[in-house]
Amino acid sequence: MSRDSEVSRKGRRTALFIAGVGVFWILATAIGSQYGWSQRIRALFDLAALAGFGAGLWMTYQLWRARQADKD
Is the dihedral of CA 64, 66, 69, 70 positive or negative? Predict the structure, then answer.
């Protein structure tokens, strides 16, 4: 497998991960509003989404570093 296809695969995985976290956050917010969850429970899901977006940012940084290494 070539290096370009591996980086492309990791990029797609990162994009799907970030999109999945976004969908999870929207669904958790909508369901929490529908069922009247407490603010504490909603905040827990907000923090989980924040951690997911942080992980997505880290994955993006690693992908950027891998592409920078390929240029050299």
Answer: negative
Q: For 31, how many CA atoms within 13 A lie in the half-sphere containing its CB?
A: 9
- Does the global pTM surpass 0.70? yes
The whole domain housing 57 covers: 8-71
> Is the residue at 3 inside a domain?
no
Residues 8-27: tens digit of each pLDDT: 999 999 999 999 999 999 99
Q: In 3D, which of 49, 68, 62 has the Cα closest to residue 11?
A: 62
Which residue stretches of the chain are H helix? Answer: 3-35, 39-71
Does some domain include residue 30? yes
Residue 1 lies in a domain: no
CA dihedral 25, 31, 37, 38 (to 10 degrees): 30
